[in-house]
Amino acid sequence: MVKKAIFPVGGLGTRFLPATKALPKEMLPVVDKPLIQYAIEEAIEAGIEEFIFVTGRNKTAIEDHFDHSVELEAVLHQKQKHEALETVRNMMRVPGTVAYVRQQEPAGLGHAVWCARHLVGNEPVAVLLADDLVLGQPALKEMTDNYQGGNMVAVMEVPKEDTSSYGIVTAGSDDGTMVTIDGIVEKPSPQNAPSNLAVIGRYIIEPEIFDVLGAQEAGVGGEIQLTDALATRIGASPFSGYRFSGKRFDCGSKIGFQKANIAFSLERDDMADELRAWLATQI
Ligand code: G1P
Fold first, then answer.
1. CATH match of 4-268 with 3.90.550.10
2. Contact 185/167 with Cβ under 8 angstroms?
3. Tens digit of pLDDT for each residue in 29-56?
4. Whole-prediction pTM value?
């Protein structure tokens, strides 16, 4: 039912300088794979067939990453490095299923999503933020398996003092996994937050959201917020939150990124034992 996904990758990565001065933050690797590739693979597992990147200046490394590298492939072929060759070739999608649209200025997540409107058309679409990396069950697949129309976001409890970093929802009915959402607000202070149930960067949005975004004023931080558009649709269409089962890492922050690298390395047979032994000597 959800066949397209938007990947907003136009952000400047200001929380990760100096690494992200020339390098797109989505290209930072966790173990040996860039964040954006994890997001694409999660989308594929959820049955997504069309991939729309909302990109910006200085982001061409992302396009190159998902294209042939002719010289590299020739060398790998010549040296008979079959496994490495397969790794780089497997990243190629079906021709014509990957589209790039430029967001000329980073004007907010809502604005980035709106930039993809003509490529989406009149159908629900997933949105994945590569900064939010999930270890374990692919979160978007859990959502698409349970999607029944309207809008849906991935949610998790966060410490109350962190509410000002997230979209925060007011839950209505709650069966422990799915919640109905009665309200949503972008980055409230802990004193004003309606709860500590936060939106994590996985969304399924209905096409009506694009019209809302097109007419929307800037919100928190002077940016066009996707959260505000979702709030406008409450009452008009169903809105649910899904408590995904995986463990989420905030790879937009330096500490979250380090934790992700350790956690993902500990999942790898070729690294886990040595890393665990070394870590034990460090504490
Ligand atoms: C964005 C959204 C926010 C959401 C967060 C999840 O914020 O605006 O509602 O909770 O992603 O990571 P950002 O982290 O881009 O400031």
1. yes
2. yes
3. 999 999 999 999 999 999 999 999 999 8
4. 0.96
